[in-house]
Amino acid sequence: MRRPRFLPDNFTLAMIATVIAASVFPCYGEGAVIFNNITHVAVSLLFFLHGAKLSREAVIAGITHWRLHLLVLLCTFALFPLLGLVLKPILTPLVTPDLYLGILFLCMLPSTVQSSIAFTAAARGNVPAAICSASASNLLGIFITPVLVGLLTSAQMQGGSPLESALQIALQLLLPFIAGQVARRWIGAWVEKHKPLTRMVDQGSILLVVYTAFSESVGQGLWHQVSWGTLAGLLLISALLLALVMGISSQLARRLGFNREDRIAIVFCGSKKSLASGVPMAKVLFAGSALGAVVLPLMLFHQLQLMVCAVLAQRYAQEKT
């Protein structure tokens, strides 16, 4: 039996089910501590496997294209946050203060790795450059995102100063990634052969963080603050941000003289935001009561960017070169 076209992918359905489970059966007390510990282990394992999987040769092949990488980084860490601040008068009437904080946090996150590369490949763009740009964005985001959060928001950060928060994130995300790169020599082929394992850890760790985040926030009355109208507002905001960044990055790439393959890589790498990196970072950076509201805009944006980029990649692939 064929899957209905209107039905979301399995991971999106799993995220929806996780939010419902956390809303109906939230974890408290000792159970919350156990889930938090399991989540930390799962996230560290995720970044270890990503380190073991990432090909150094592919990164080196694209690393010399510095103009492209600089433009992607500027779109990710400068254009997005600027839009989040400039559009504040339009955004704040649509959402609560905690949700606007989540939108700002979304704007400060690094790009995705897997989907940026996959969509660039599907659209017949510059794949080596996309691998390098997306990977660099993720690694630099471990340091840049906490600093931006400290500078641009007044949120109470769990780790204290941006520097302390960056150190916490580096210990939880960067250190396992480096260990994975070191271990790639021995386990890289095995990890490549067992890609479903990486996908299972990837999705499983995100679902664990989503469950613990929403469990904590439900106890603080999250769903009394978020109405259907607010959710519709979040979707409109996500669509606006995505359309603006895609349009601006495409025009900048064209005006700066990049060829078609490079423009494709710039649009897909510069307009995406990482759920896999963002959810663990949010858990380190933000206080428990606001965590669910901070993560919610990212979850909606993640699904929207996948749907839009899938359609756009098809159109690029069908164009005459």
Automatic annotation (TrEMBL):
GO cellular component term of the entry, any: plasma membrane
Signal peptide region: none
Domain of life: Bacteria
Pfam families: SBF_like
Keywords: Membrane, Transmembrane, Transmembrane helix
Transmembrane segments: 7-25, 31-49, 70-87, 99-122, 129-153, 165-183, 204-223, 229-253, 281-301
Protein name: Bile acid:sodium symporter
Organism the protein comes from: Duganella callida
